[in-house]
Amino acid sequence: MQLRYIKYLLLIAVFVYACKKGEVIQEKVETFLGFQKPKNFPEPIYNFANNAVTKEGFELGRMLFYEPRLSRDNTITCGSCHIQSSAFTQHGHDVSHGIDDRLGTRNSPPIMNLAWNKAFMWGGGIYDLDLFPISPITTHEEMDESLENVLNKLKAMDKYKSKFKAAFGTEEITTANFLKALSQFMLMCVSSNSKYDKVMRKEDNASFTTAETEGYELFKQKCASCHTEPLFTDNGFRNNGLAPNPINDLGLYTATLLNADKYKFKVPSLRNLKYTAPFMHDGRFLTLDAVFTHYIHEVQATENLDPLLNKNIARGITINNEEKTKLMAFLNTLNDEEFINNKLLAEQ
User: Fold this and answer.
1) What's the domain range around 9?
2) What is the pTM of this model?
3) Taken in order 267, 273, 275, 277, is the CA torsion positive or negative?
4) For the chain, what percent of residues have pLDDT higher than 90?
């Protein structure tokens, strides 16, 4: 009986220890770690010295990102055009749909890995993430509101006074702190846990299949000059030979007024292509197959066509069907399911 009693006490002790250990693990999981640079990524471009990501600042930014009062009629949020399940793009629309269902002129770009971006918007013109939200808030086809009105709406709500106090040490709701909070949320939208990333970091015994490996080698030969690893964009602006659309969008030229920039658009990342269709600045291609068709057969000799696409008489990139299949296999390794399901980034 005494031995059985001792065993019973030991069992209880083990159970209590396991519970406490579980609580410690759960506490660590729920600890806000702030911005963490993935091991296989370069140093970020964003100046965190001016706006360090804190738990309170991030949570405020998340509230603002999903706040409809940023729009004129209080119906449109940042998350309306940047939907997490679509890697923060507006899936199903060729161009963005804003207030009163007004149509924009360009496809909603994904909010992803912005800490490494040196320019924003398909056509440039904004070079500081902290200024980026001003454009969608004030644009007629998007939120059609003024910053002054937005701030007045927020000032009328006690919950925002306390949130700004927690994040920035003052209840005063200023333009600078409003924009910094939004930046803190967007900076945390890091996509870095695709199969590709795990292979590069040698995590979880991840490895490419034969088709993925061969596709990777083809990618480095045919695509990597513009879509540079590990972000899969060189963050530059290039003319990829698209036929001008009906509104004759001139791209970067609209920001610089330099003839050399006509028809140049920002090089998008190839991460999360499974979730970000349609493709190109105006969403003209519904599938990746259509994108391949463009580069193989349909590159136009438009003004300022990128030299990398103008090497051959036929222009474009030479890819046969077998190579396309292998490239697709590799591109699928760039999809990050953890990113689109990250509850930390979802509306609370």
Assistant:
1) 1-31
2) 0.89
3) positive
4) 88
